Amino acid sequence: xxxxxxxxxxxxxxxxxxxxxxxxxxxxxxxxxxxxxxxxxxxxxxxxxxxxxxxxx
Length: 57
Known about the structure:
Structural class: mainly beta
Strand order of the largest sheet: 4-3-2-1-5
Number of helices: 0
Shape: globular
């Protein structure tokens, strides 16, 4: 799934928990895209891969 900075997404975090967050940064090009996402509940930024994103909100 291709996403852009500012998009809200649901993704799989550590332990495969479903999380919601906003994309802060996009790095790389398909198929090696990585995103920096700020978790809405914890307000912590984490690096995720494209395959971890389940859907855009």
